[in-house]
Amino acid sequence: MPERWGIKTTSDDGYINLHSDYSSMVYYAEMLQNTNSVRPVYTGDNYVPISETQKTTFYDMGWVVQFKLTNINTEFLLPFYLPAFSGQQIGILDVIRKDATTWLVNLIYSGNETNTPRVFAFAPLNAMPRPVMEGRWGLNVFDQNNRLVFTDNKQPLRVDDVLLITHPSTIKTGARGTCGNSKSCHINFTSDQTATYTGTATNSSTKLYHIVPSAYGGLAYKDSDSGRGDCGLLELGRYEYAWVYQSWASFRGTVGHIWGTRNHTVDWLSDFAGGYHQFKKGSCGLSGILGFILGGLLTLVTLGAGLVFLVGGALVGFALAGVDSVPSLKAYDADETIDTNTASNLIITDLKYYNISEEIETEFEPYPPGPVPLEYVYSNTFEETPVYWSFRRFRPENSTLPFFGTLEIYAVYPATETTPSTTGMVRIEDFSSDNTIESVTFQGVTYYRGNFVDESLINVYDPVTNVFIGIDYTAYYELGIIGTP
Amino acid sequence: MPDYGLEINGFSFNYGVYSVIEKGVLSGVTTITKEAHPDIRLWQVFFVPVGVRDINARELRPTSSESTVQNAGETYNIITLVPPSVGTTSYLYFILGR
């Protein structure tokens, strides 16, 4: 055994558990939901309408959502998820370092929109600033380069199981039906190819999982026809026609974990789907224009930077964090799977090891989802004690000046065991005119803007001359709060 | 509760805790020699893509493998990390061990 310094412990199974040459991977914090959960579909030219029910029954769509963690200064991050129910199919799509202190995770999940998983961030201790992590008492361990590698203020990653996962090489082999000259027809793209892996640890409602599946792909259908139709007895000759129908479902590899068993099922969920249909018809009596009709039919749309708009704004919430944080989408024109041969490691731990609560600690529906300890209630009567976020702006009539705005946050802090309830208004001067702010931290409390509730437009008159001078506009939103005053 | 071992602040070190043996941004073929870490007997490799994965570019994931090499009469066990052959997404790698 080479001469070493520092501290080293060995577990009862003979493996190293703590070694001052190596950093712990520690639990840092829970990531917060940053967007609504969406199921984007193509809504560009000649699109085939897809209802919410059809997204499930025909296109096997999962919900795409983004999580965010701020105030973490690390170049390395390992996200873990907690499923909302046994067997829930989940796939981490992207892990994005937005800036020096902000990370984003795009994720897809099965079930209902409200079955949002929870996401937790783990990071190497020696990759974070020491003053943030080092405890003031207890045990702190440093490596030979004076980097903190263990502190008893942060629980290190304790692993229950690790296993390699690969996805099937195909998404669907069963019948899927056909479509023709119709704008209301749908192909059944529901995946039917799965696999099961058995590990050594039993899954439960408290297990956390990390895996970024490598496999993705798509299913597609296309048909077209052209010909001549009869114009009928009263019209001379025939008409020429042509039509094209095309639809697709893009898929990502997912993994589900069956509680009470050691089984993990690999499956597929669609992250983007769509279809388009076009029919063109020539005039009666005219011939020789079929080529013109066929040339005018829409070809498959190549989605790129404009995809945010082609999916009807469903991904706008993601784009607010930056266009470079929007999940990549693809419209397939043929069946294919990619990267199914590359195995990914699934690592399992348990939230109990890190004192993470199994329940989101709030009595009320939180916004954004996560540990919101305070109540939020909006009332526009103002006779009750309101809790709201309002953006107010005023511009004099005929003024060329931009709007100026005032952010007013009015909150009620509920009673605790030792303190009575308190109320207060926080006013934050904001001189932007477009009200794009979604959260603000003021005196250690972070306020989040929720759903729009109401607005008011008040004409303002000079109190002396009674001359109309401008419009006072106020928008009211639900409010979520993290932190206490 | 066992009568031996190390427990700190309620956390017992009798259970499987992985340490970060190596980490980095995968920028080329990268090799880790296990013999450079003689206390480590279990090894796991994790790749984390950083950034939006471009599925339109048919991006692939990195791969890892293990092999043995002979050098000056000594046998060395090598973990080799290979960047993807297709795609530009940056990947972090974690070599966790215990």
Question: What do these coordinates show?
Answer:
The complex is a heterodimer of chains A (485) and B (98). The two termini of chain A are 54 Å apart. About 7% of the residues of chain A have low confidence. In chain A, the strands form six sheets. A six-stranded antiparallel beta sheet of chain A has the order 5-8-3-4-7-6, with no helix packed on it. A six-stranded antiparallel beta sheet of chain A has the order 21-20-19-24-23-22, with no helix packed on it. Chain A is flat, with a radius of gyration of 28 Å. By secondary structure, chain A is mostly beta strands. Chain B has 98 residues and is mainly β. Helices cover 0% and strands 50% of the residues of chain B. Chain B contains no helices and eight strands. In chain B, the strands form three sheets. Chain B has a three-stranded antiparallel beta sheet, with no helix packed on it. The mean pLDDT of chain B is 82. Strand 3 of chain A pairs antiparallel with strand 3 of chain B, so a sheet runs across the interface.
Helix count of chain A, per DSSP?
A: 5
N-to-C order of helices and strands of chain A: EEEHEEEEEHEEEEEEEEHHHEEEEEEEE
Please count the beta strands of chain A (DSSP E, at least 2 residues each).
Answer: 24
> Beta fraction of the residues of chain A?
35-45%
Q: How would you describe the oligomerization state of the chains in this entry?
A: heterodimer
Distance N to C terminus of chain B: 22 Å
Rg of chain B, rounded, reads 17 Å
Most strands sheet of chain B = 3 strands, antiparallel
Write the topology of this structure.
The complex is a heterodimer of chains A (485) and B (98).
Chain A: E1 8-10, E2 16-19, E3 23-33, H1 52-57, E4 63-69, E5 78-82, E6 90-99, E7 102-109, E8 118-124, H2 130-133, E9 140-142, E10 148-151, E11 161-165, E12 195-198, E13 207-210, E14 216-230, E15 238-257, E16 263-281, H3 290-296, H4 307-310, H5 316-319, E17 336-338, E18 344-350, E19 388-396, E20 404-413, E21 422-430, E22 439-442, E23 445-461, E24 468-482
Antiparallel strand pairs in A: 1-2, 3-4, 3-8, 4-7, 5-8, 6-7, 9-10, 11-18, 12-16, 13-18, 14-15, 14-17, 15-16, 19-20, 19-24, 20-21, 22-23, 23-24
Chain B: E1 7-8, E2 11-12, E3 19-25, E4 30-33, E5 43-50, E6 63-71, E7 74-82, E8 90-97
Antiparallel strand pairs in B: 1-2, 3-8, 4-7, 5-8, 6-7
